[in-house]
Amino acid sequence: MKRIKLFSIFVFIMCMPVLLAQNPLDFFPHHEGDIWEYWYDENPPGGYVIRQNAITKDSLGNDGRHYIETTLFNKFILDTATFEVYRYYSNPLYKDKWYKLDADSGDTWIVWQDSSGQHQFLAVVSDVYQEPYFNQAVTIKIIDYYMHTVGVPESLWTTTHYLASNFGLVRTDVEFSSPEYLIRGAIIDSVLYGNVTSIEQVEKDRTPKTFTLHQNYPNPFNPTTTIKYELSAAAKVELTVYDLLGREVKTLVNTYHPTGTYRVQFDGTQLSSGIYSYTLKTPQGAVISKKMVLLK
Fold it and tell me: Are 239 and 249 in contact (CB under 8 A)?
């Protein structure tokens, strides 16, 4: 037993330099032209298609921070001094502290909170471990995101992100799809890892094959957000927003659409902070619902 304990301590000590030497910025590669390719669960559970994300712009602002634009996910601000990554929007007053790249297991922070401070969107690093990706030993940080109301003991889990050293975001989980996004390849700093499809093939694959409702973006939002949906066949569709009690808040769409991809904006200016749902349905009986969080 003593030999086993001594061996465990020896292994831990040998691994410490690797863990301590990890550069937090490795968890968020940001070279202009970097590409990530994911399996995306378009029709949960298991209706996977290919999606690509690419960095189209990485500029250094007057404040010394990196302003990064991508094709699929968010616009980001990266502060290399504090290792913090913010989502940012057209309104500079709104930004979310999405990642703390130097955070360790158990660390938590406020992503966003409303003006009263009562409703908060929280991030918690639930685990840090090592795992091979593309034949490389990398460190994985699991970050869980919760909607929390001050004074209420329970919080509502909304999504989970997996950040890998050298690769960035490799997986996301949501309530009805785990994983939602799962990396299958990447080009980081001009080096190819795994499989990356040609852009032309990805565009071809984006022709809607199913009746799909996407997660709104941004989420949480204040005060506006965009909802995207896809129709594989022409249909009359209805898109409606409800509160947590199931009461109708607003009908956003109630019309006939041909096959295609559509986006509609929802404005929550007149609503209070909280969790809302939005439902897409057709007369043929197809119904899909998702949740979104309004934080003021």
Answer: no
Cα separation, 152 vs 149, whole angstroms: 6
What is the chain's Cα-based Rg? 21
Beta strands in the chain (DSSP E): 35-41, 48-60, 66-70, 75-79, 84-88, 95-100, 108-113, 119-133, 136-149, 156-164, 168-174, 177-188, 191-194, 212-213, 224-231, 235-242, 248-257, 260-267, 274-281, 287-294
CB 226 within 8 A of CB 253: no
Residue of 256, 251, 201, 210 lying closest to 230 (CA atoms)? 210
Instruction: For 15-72, write each residue's pLDDT tens digit.
Output: 444 444 479 999 999 999 899 999 988 766 667 888 899 999 999 999 999 999 998 8
Q: What is the number of alpha carbons within 13 Å of residue 201 lying toward its C-beta? A: 7
Q: Which residues contact 18 (CB under 8 A, 6 or more apart)?
A: none
Domain definitions of the chain by residue range:
2-205, 212-294
Closest CA to 205 of 250, 247, 261: 261
Distance CA 37, CA 233 (A): 27
- Quick one: tokens of 88? 């940012």
Distance separating alpha carbons of residues 210 and 131, to the nearest angstrom: 34
184: CB partners within 8 A, 6+ apart: 37, 38, 39, 50, 194, 195
Q: Name the region of 89 (left: φ>0; alpha: ψ -120 to 50; beta: rest).
A: beta
Whether the predicted model's global pTM rises above the 0.90 cut = no
Query: By C-alpha distance, which of 175, 164, 169 is closest to 133?
Result: 164
> For the structural domain made of 212-294, what CATH number should be given?
2.60.40.1930
Alpha helix stretches (DSSP H) within 38-137: none
Quick one: DSSP state of residue 273?
S
Helix (H) / strand (E) element for 103: namely none
